[in-house]
Design a protein that fits this description.
6-stranded mixed β-sheet; 367 residues; Rossmann fold; D-amino Acid Aminotransferase, Chain A, domain 1; 3 domains; alpha+beta; 17 strands; 10 helices
């Protein structure tokens, strides 16, 4: 059944602040007419509780601009809410969770749970589990101290978070324990002269938020710069998963993070991989293909339904490949900077997938 024969659906771009990702939302909106989709954007807090009407913005194709408008809850929602501030967690997140349970609304994809739940879910996957670094939920400082006795280094990662925020590298030297972390693009270090002093600091840290403990993997290039490979996976107009593109993020010398938010730069995958031997490249490509093929379906089977995923891949000097992180609301900066030709597909993809979901719903209704 063709979409043009159906009632025109509305796709809502849901954000904590309506001007967040303004450029991305506008590019999608410009293309919405060719998919016969009405495109709007709104904030969770803009829903009027008594009427369930929304004070949001609708894209006007004639003037190519956003206009204030009141409209009902859209039939389809593209969730791009980021909860970086406590106020957003308390005010917006409960409304988004309520929207997800609304039978009249279909989300393009749901957000992933915390990193510990993801790790536990994927541990039972025989293919994907081999790419996951050993991970523990930190309950007490002794776990960290035990790891330092064995490896002398470790990584502390917040159970929730993205863009490298809150990640701490820990190294045990002969006379001190040193931690390294980032404040935006600035790298900070702190030394503890005794185990007791470090344990006391850990106690305070663990009261603030929950952390995971992982090995500090040797993920540096030949010049000693940290880097990772970003895979961008997305569903196409047929609802099938595919690798849209990949790029490389390179951090600055002496850092342990490669996130763009932490001062990293984007490189094309082809430029970066040209430094590999032909054998290394073939083996790496095979590993990346395995992850791209199996990870999305495994996540959907074990965790939740998704539309897109950004996957951060670590490539160690010994050739081992690691899944460092995955994000159900990935940014597009690395992909667009390293694959400019992918931009058009990126802007059309949410509309094409919405088109697919609408047709699927229509088929169910007609049966």
């Amino acid at each position: 059944m063709e979409l043009t024969k159906l009632e025109q659906p509305t796709l809502g771009f849901l954000v904590v602040n309506k001007h967040h990702e303004n450029g991305y939302a506008t590019e999608i909106a410009k293309r919405s007419a060719q998919f016969n989709i009405q495109f709007v954007r709104f904030e969770p807090t803009s829903i009027e509780p008594s009427t369930l009407m929304i004070n949001g913005e609708k894209y006007d194709q004639q003037t190519q601009s956003w206009k204030n408008e009141v409209f009902p809850i859209p039939s389809f929602i593209y969730d791009r809410c980021f909860y970086h501030q406590k106020q957003a967690i308390y005010k917006c997140k409960p409304i988004v969770e309520w929207l997800k349970k609304n039978p009249q609304t279909t989300f393009l994809g749901f957000g992933l749970p915390d990193k510990w739940k993801i790790y536990q879910s994927l541990q039972s996957d025989p293919i994907i589990s081999s790419y996951l670094p050993h991970t523990e939920l930190v309950r007490e400082p002794n776990q960290i101290l035990h790891r330092l006795k064995v490896d002398t280094t470790c990584l502390l990662k917040p159970i929730n978070g993205s863009r490298g925020n809150g990640i701490i590298a820990v190294k045990h030297h002969t006379k001190a324990i040193m931690i390294t972390y980032h404040k935006g693009k600035d790298k900070k270090t702190k030394d503890f002269q005794s185990i007791k002093e470090f344990a006391s600091w850990c106690e305070k840290l663990l009261k603030q938020q929950t952390y995971l403990l992982q090995p500090l993997l040797p993920l540096l290039d030949n010049q000693g710069y940290p880097f990772d490979i970003r895979l961008f996976l997305q569903k196409n107009k047929h609802g099938k998963w595919g690798l849209v593109g990949k790029g490389v993020r390179k951090g600055y010398y002496g850092s342990f993070l490669s996130n763009l938010n932490s001062g990293g730069d984007a490189l094309t995958y082809s430029d970066w991989s040209s430094t590999l031997s032909s054998k290394q490249k073939v083996l790496l490509e095979d590993e990346l293909r395995t992850i791209s093929t199996h990870l999305p379906t495994s996540l959907e089977e074990k965790v939740t339904r998704l539309f897109e995923i950004g996957v951060d891949i670590g490539y160690a000097k010994d050739g081992s490949v690691w899944i460092l992180d995955m994000n159900s609301k990935p940014g597009r900066k690395t992909l667009i900077e390293t694959n400019p030709n992918a931009a058009e597909n990126l802007f059309e993809a949410p509309l094409a997938y919405c088109h697919f979901l609408r047709n699927q719903a229509a088929i169910k209704e007609s049966n």
